[in-house]
Amino acid sequence: MNAITLNDRSLSGVLEAPETQALPAPAAPSRRTPYFETDSGKRFVEGTRTLFRNAIPPLLGMLLFVALWALVANSGGQIPGPGETWDAAVELFSDPFYDNGPNDQGIGWNILNSLYRVGIGFGFAAAVGIPLGFMIGRFDFLNRMLSPIISILRPVSPLAWLPIGLLVLQRAEPASIWVIFISSIWPMVLNTAAGVQRIPQDYMNVARVLNLSEFKVFTKILFPAVLPYVLTGVRLAIGVAWLVIVAAEMLTGGVGIGFWVWDEWNNLNVAHIIIAIFVVGIVGLLLEQMLMLIAKRFSYD
Amino acid sequence: MQSYVQIENASMVFSTRKGKFTALTGIDLHVDQGEFIALIGHSGCGKSTLLNLVAGLLDATDGVLLLANKEIKGPGPERGVVFQNHSLLPWLSAFENVYLAVEKVFGRTESGKQLKARTSAALELVGLTHAAAKLPGEISGGMKQRVGIARALAMEPKVLLMDEPFGALDALTRAHLQDELLKIVAATQSTVIMVTHDVDEAVLLSDRIVMMTNGPAATIGEILTVGLPRPRDRLQLAHDPHYHGLRSQVLEFLYSRQMRPKEAA
């Protein structure tokens, strides 16, 4: 507290200095405290500075982006400009939850459907991938056994799994969930396994000296030590899942943001496609931020 | 007096990728109950290995280790270990870190209230009552090390094993904790084996200094009995000729007879 107050004083002192010198000094006792030397004044100055430092650069970036976009849109071609897209977005989001049959639903329904598929596929992947990662990390034999398979399967493009899903599951809906599952499982398996393998030997020595039971070792040492790694895996996985869902839905159809993009392409409604790009980006960002927040809670460094 | 910790002809051979590496050979050491032993030697001389043998974290490839006439097989809470880098669990508070040990040792026979009282008492012993609710990341290195000592002491171990417990601390904090350790050991009458590379620390704290020869195949070179009366005071000892005599004997062993090999730097 002290340091901050001091700092503020010296800061406002610097701000005030030229003014006091320029003006003829009034009689000292009757001098009113200038606004910038009062507490609220100092807070105002500090707040403005923080705002400037934090808000101006991103705003400038956005402005530049929109300007570039407007330039491209104006130089011919069929890409709608920012204004046109904004109008379309306002209209679109004024009624997000209408339902005119399976091929014409509001943007809200499309987003929720996509999130639902991601949730199911990702949930299954977490339920399988995290325990599997623990076992791979704990038992070297399993690690050596599975690592060649994982190495081969992991780099496969998610959409390559779609035909297998369609063949086995027969329907489009579970097939797209299957694609989410198979593409989001790897980051969770690999990160969890790496976390288990990297538990400091010291912690395990503590467990040995105390003769802790397997249950205590898991709950008090293994799980908390690995949790940050698991959460990193989860964050990467949900990013992948959200990336993949758009592509998967384009191919399988139904209701969902990916299908919606394809549908609007068939309608040649480019403004809606651009809106969809923003929506996908913003939802992805929110998912990521949410998980970052959870991960922060469990970080002990 | 009967020996409490007995090490008979112990040796330790590690199998490495490059072949067998003999760390320790022919170690014979008898420690009495309530005795404070300092293990000193150049780095790489296997003093931590010897401590880990007593702790049971390593199994001797040859020889026998006994604690109160029972063979040491694997680690156990009757040998409290204070690790070099404190090894507190960062997601547990100071209290919970100590409680984990207390619960393991006394959980079967005592109520939760008694266990908590034991934990608080251990933290009070090292002067950390005020920091009980803090996570290890929120306290200083010296405080962490004190929690580590409290954890080891709270188990009421037969032997307290300390692996360079103050090695990572600054000189002032180290001196402060050494003084505290002297008081705690005097109060609890603990049997202690402490690894150190600090000559002053060894002379100040211990009853006997076990000086180890250089590795590989290190063994005990000489054992020096520190006859200084207790309680010891570091300021008075600074002017004590006996203290300086002991100190130079250790230095002479380390730097004249066991000069560190040049390439080991």
What does this structure look like?
The complex is a heterodimer of chains A (301) and B (265). Chain A is mostly helical and 301 residues long. Chain A folds into two domains: 76 residues, no CATH class; 191 residues, MetI-like fold. Chain A is built from eleven helices and no strands. In chain A, helix 6 packs across helix 7, helix 9 packs antiparallel against helix 11 and helix 10 runs antiparallel to helix 11. The N terminus of chain A is likely disordered. Chain B is α/β, with parallel strands linked by helices and 265 residues long. Chain B folds into two domains: 183 residues, P-loop containing nucleotide triphosphate hydrolases (Rossmann fold, 3-Layer(aba) Sandwich); 72 residues, no CATH class. Chain B is built from eight helices and ten strands. Chain B has a six-stranded mixed sheet with strand order 6-7-8-3-9-10, with helices on both faces. In chain B, a hairpin with a 2-residue loop joins strand 4 and strand 5. At the A-B interface, helix 8 and helix 9 of A face strand 6 and helix 2 of B.
Question: What is the tally of beta strands of chain A?
Answer: 0
Mean pLDDT of chain B: 88
Structural class of chain A: mainly alpha
Radius of gyration of chain A: 28 Å
Number of domains of chain B: 2
> Which topology of the largest domain in chain A does CATH recognise?
MetI-like fold
Proportion of strand residues of chain B: 25-35%
Oligomer: heterodimer
| SS content category of chain B | alpha/beta
Major beta-sheet overview of chain A: none
Topology:
The complex is a heterodimer of chains A (301) and B (265).
Chain A: H1 2-22, H2 39-74, H3 82-94, H4 107-138, H5 140-153, H6 162-169, H7 172-197, H8 201-210, H9 214-252, H10 257-266, H11 270-297
Helix pairs in contact in A: 3-11, 4-5, 4-7, 4-9, 4-10, 6-7, 7-9, 9-10, 9-11, 10-11
Chain B: E1 3-16, E2 19-32, E3 36-40, H1 47-55, E4 62-67, E5 70-71, E6 79-82, H2 94-106, H3 112-125, H4 141-154, E7 159-163, H5 171-188, E8 191-196, H6 199-205, E9 208-212, E10 220-225, H7 234-237, H8 241-257
Parallel strand pairs in B: 3-8, 3-9, 6-7, 7-8
Antiparallel strand pairs in B: 1-2, 1-4, 4-5, 9-10
